UniProtKB/TrEMBL annotation:
Pfam families (UniProt xref): SGL
Residues that span the membrane, as ranges: none
Organism expressing this protein natively: Rhizodiscina lignyota
Signal peptide location: 1-15
UniProt protein name: SMP-30/Gluconolactonase/LRE-like region domain-containing protein
Domain SMP-30/Gluconolactonase/LRE-like region: 152-367
InterPro entries listed in its UniProt record: 6-blade_b-propeller_TolB-like, Oryzine_lactonohydrolase, SGL
Keyword annotations of the record: Signal
Coiled coil: none
Length: 391
């Protein structure tokens, strides 16, 4: 027997495509929907339907008027589940709030400082104007939500990724016409910048995209075409886009993965996980829209067992983070998707509204997170599971 159909705010007729919400989720401060292949009407859609992979499911072109209304409804939800685990991770108290509407250009490199309770992130300069180059970043006080425009000393040029580790912000940059991509350390109190690394045995990086730091303090950095695509990097010849590990003890950079296609593929988000009771950790890399998982060998210098973990339901994964319990959070177009680290199943989407909004990167607090992207900054709070990791 099915549960009584109850979809808050949704006429019953529309309900046949969506699965009734589990008990406890009928009246929540955030609005929810459950898209499930348990529903025969969703399994076999009527009429004509079509969408590009770059558009979200609720943005599909459909001929059935009821399904069209369902999509209009989905476009105004906050949380869309595809798997019951999503309800357990997010919980019924969660809400999402659009804190700041910022220009419709990329915001990324978000990281949260738990000591000062400040969120750091970058805003890409508009292409053209200033050559796409940006030498300043935002700091947001997450208690008052006040935004501050900061310039580090000396300035950090084209910040692209950030992670907070043991009291410092670690930022990677694309570089520009005057300097190669760098890994830098920023003291959050003095905003003093120290360059930690800027070359692979005298060769410039193409342009760093993202950074993660593992439990032992090793840096995992993706080197990407993003700066080339915006014509801010002049270097030639270039290496392939890929992933490097920089050993925390020896500081020696080593490539651990390269894209196959020099011309078109790139390397985007990276996240290292600590799997409980395991000596090897998988990492996740974006290439050709695929989210790949690898095991890291014991020395930390070779990746093994490559596997396609998932392909995003829509758009492509940009920033990736792994939460305390191992869930992968990936910015993917209009939502941040939560992905199971082993099965690769997409469990659900945290939506940042529709239209032109794009979720690019996330930063975790304890039971809250911030999302930055095109259209500004969002705050998701009241999340049931603890998100920030142990290091
Ligand atoms: C399907 O979608 C694609 C991409 O948006 C579009 O080019 C094409 O015309 C659509 N086809 C139909 C039959 O709607
Ligand atoms: C801007 O970019 C052009 C190439 O696209 C380059 O020649 C020029 O030096 C750049 N200007 C600055 C200030 O970096
Ligand atoms: C931030 O500061 C930089 C440098 O002073 C300036 O170019 C930029 O317009 C400022 N941006 C905002 C949003 O205040
Ligand atoms: C870093 O280098 C040290 C010293 O050579 C080595 O013991 C360790 O396994 C290396 N770790 C990684 C992740 O490369
Ligand atoms: C989806 O919602 C946004 C507001 O967040 C709105 O601007 C957009 O027009 C909506 N899209 C559709 C297809 O209804
Ligand atoms: C069918 C549909 O709603 N398409 C829209 C998907 O989103 C893009 C970007 O907002 C719109 O341009 C399309 O019209």
């Amino acid at each position: 027997m099915r549960a009584i159909l109850h979809l808050a705010g949704l006429p019953l007729a529309l309900g046949r495509f969506l699965k009734p919400l589990p008990s406890g989720f009928e009246h929540t401060p955030g609005s929810w929907a459950w898209m499930s292949y348990d529903e025969p009407d969703f399994r076999v859609l009527p009429g004509h339907f079509n969408r590009s992979v770059l558009y979200a499911p609720w943005n599909a072109t459909v001929s059935d008027p009821t399904l069209n209304k369902v999509n209009d409804h989905l476009n105004y939800t906050d949380f869309v589940a595809y798997d019951p685990q999503f309800f357990d991770i997010i919980g019924p108290e969660a809400t999402i709030e659009h804190l700041h509407l910022l220009p419709y250009q990329t915001h990324e490199a978000s990281c949260w400082n738990p000591e000062s309770k400040e969120l750091f992130f970058a805003e890409w300069g508009p292409p053209g104007g200033n050559n796409g180059t940006h030498t300043w970043q935002y700091l947001m006080n997450t208690e008052t939500n006040e935004l501050r425009n900061i310039t580090t000393d000396p300035p950090t040029v084209n910040a692209h990724g950030c992670t907070f580790y043991k009291g410092k912000m670690y930022v990677v940059t694309d570089g520009d016409h005057h300097e190669s991509g760098q890994i830098v350390e920023i003291d959050p109190k003095t905003l003093k910048k120290t360059v930690l690394l800027n070359n692979v045995f005298e060769q410039p990086f193409i342009g760093f995209n993202d950074i993660d730091i593992d439990e032992d303090g090793n840096f995992w950095v993706t080197d990407s075409r993003s700066g080339i695509n915006r014509a801010i990097i002049p270097w030639w010849p270039r290496t392939r886009p890929g992933l490097y590990v920089v050993n925390a003890t020896t500081w020696r950079p080593k490539p651990v993965w390269y894209t196959n296609d020099f011309a078109v593929s790139s390397a985007n988000g990276i996240a290292v996980t600590a799997t409980v009771n395991a000596a090897v950790d998988p990492t996740y890399i974006y290439s050709n829209f695929a989210l790949m998982a690898y095991d890291i060998d014991l020395e930390g210098t070779i990746l093994t067992n490559p596997r396609l973990l998932n392909n995003p339901i829509a758009y492509y994964y940009d920033g990736l983070r792994v939460s305390r319990n191992g869930w992968i959070f990936g910015g993917a177009g209009q939502s941040v998707d939560i992905i199971h680290p082993v099965t690769g199943l997409t469990l659900g989407s945290i939506r940042v509204g529709g239209g032109l909004n794009v979720a690019v990167n996330v930063a975790f607090g304890k039971h809250e997170m911030w999302i930055v992207g095109k259209g500004g900054v969002w705050h998701v709070k009241g999340i049931k599971e603890r998100l920030d990791r142990t290091w």
